[in-house]
Cytosolic malic enzyme 1
Amino acid sequence: EAFVRSQMYSTDYDQILPDGYSWPEEAQKIQTKLD
């Protein structure tokens, strides 16, 4: 459940945040795992 939820939030962030947004370190780790 947590994994799916993280994917959903990731998609939302990709749409909401502007390009070049400075991701928090923890968010960068999550993005790397999803990639």
Observations:
- Residues 2-16 form the longest helix (15 residues).
